[in-house]
Write a structure and sequence with these properties.
394 residues, alpha+beta, Rossmann fold, Dna Ligase, domain 1, 3 domains, four-stranded parallel sheet
């Protein structure tokens, strides 16, 4: 079975390795910038294009490859090529999400509209065009507001606006790109994320977590990124799983993985849907899920794709039920030394150029909380470098 994978940056090694374990012939199309990155040896063929977001260029390249290769699946390895994979599937008539369906997991405006139509609570929002829509929005929704790009990942290029003058000035700065944005009520609160596996339109596995500092504040101000398992006795646990099920149903995902984010309002504890994506969550969230639940989201994503393509059944079962937390930060050192972080709950670490990630896991809720609190302070003292406003997610 020949599988075409598309990537705009280096990601998804375990996904590729699982495809290979299941006997796939893997063809990778990526950019010149990351062509020579350490892609797994299981990639059978590797090609590059000048611009991975140029459909005509990619279509011609893939069309040439398809003359002698029978592609059965076209799979995106990151958020930025979901649309390209969908367009290629439609062009070559290969099963999987087409352009319109994939847009529900890329376009923040469309996903809000679909969720709202299904009765899922979302913060009040408006498209930027026509401007009369924004005028009506600001008459009824008090500041502050968040201006968001419709097709970026995470908190990239988001702006918090405190007054009408700044909002319109920022909109005008966008020029002809205004239609690529939306404006939304800023809701102070805790950001939650649910990472799921979907099969036959139903969630067959999910894990819920709560961020420490919000991703937006990390992107804007820097700091130690963290995420913590939501205990089952937490009042929000059932509610966020239910709302995640409602979102999957509203957007009509048939199979694969999802990373969805919600906000628990500080004001009244209400839960609102923020956004979702048909991919594995970034910033090493997959490691947190694996260490606490024993499920590798990258591997299971590959398995769902192959099962769907081959018409085979699919099952997944969690092998763990632990509490845990994830810490990630930029570091002042190229290779930070973790030898003094030797508590038995440290179950996974990853050090790479000026970056550090760690998962702590165990059965004792209080112990996990104490470790996360202590380690965040120690990370700040021992390692933390401030770097903000990047244009791509981790």
């Amino acid at each position: 079975m020949t599988v075409l994978c598309i990537a705009s940056f280096y990601k998804g090694a375990k996904f590729l390795e699982e495809l290979a374990r299941q006997g796939c012939h893997i063809v990778l199309v990526t950019t010149q910038e990351v062509y020579n990155d350490p892609w797994p040896a299981c990639v059978n063929e590797r090609f590059c294009v000048h611009k991975i977001d140029n459909f005509e260029e990619v279509r011609k390249a893939v069309g040439y490859l398809a003359r002698s290769r029978d592609f059965r699946c076209i799979l995106p390895l990151d958020e930025y090529v979901v649309d390209m994979a969908a367009a290629l599937r439609e062009h070559l008539r290969i099963p999987g999400m087409g352009v319109t369906h994939a847009a529900r997991f890329r376009d923040k405006l469309l996903m809000r509209i679909k969720a709202q139509q299904a009765g899922v609570p979302v913060p009040q929002f408006s498209a930027i065009l026509p401007h009369s829509s924004v005028e009506n929005f600001i008459k009824t929704v008090p500041a502050p507001w968040i201006l968001k790009p419709r097709a970026e990942s995470g908190s990239v290029k988001m702006r918090k606006l405190e007054n009408v003058k700044d909002l319109w000035a920022t909109i005008e700065e966008l020029g002809d790109d205004q239609s690529h944005y939306l404006v939304e009520r800023f809701v102070p609160g805790h950001i939650l994320h649910v990472d799921s596996i979907v099969w036959n339109n139903k969630i067959v596995f999910s894990a819920a977590h709560r961020y420490g500092k919000t991703p937006f504040s990390i992107w804007r101000d820097g700091g130690v990124f963290s995420s913590r398992t939501i205990p089952k006795n937490d009042s929000i646990y059932q509610a966020v799983h239910k709302q995640n099920e409602d979102v999957v149903k509203a957007l009509g995902q048939e199979y694969g993985v999802t990373h969805a984010e919600f906000i628990q309002s500080h004001e009244d504890n209400s839960l609102y849907f923020l956004e979702t994506a048909a991919r594995v969550g970034g910033a090493h969230i997959d490691a947190l899920v694996k260490e606490t639940r024993g499920v590798d989201l990258w591997i299971e994503w590959a398995r769902t794709e192959l099962a769907a393509a081959q018409g085979k059944p699919y099952k997944v079962k969690a092998s763990k039920d632990l509490q845990g937390g994830l810490l990630v930060c930029l570091t002042r050192q190229k290779s930070p030394n973790l030898s003094h972080y030797d508590d038995p709950e440290v179950s996974w670490t990853h050090v790479w150029d000026y970056h550090l990630a760690m998962v702590v896991s165990g059965k004792d809720d209080a112990r996990i909380d104490r470790l996360l609190e202590a380690y965040q302070h120690r990370f700040a003292d021992d390692f933390l470098a401030i770097g903000v406003g990047g244009d791509r997610p981790a």
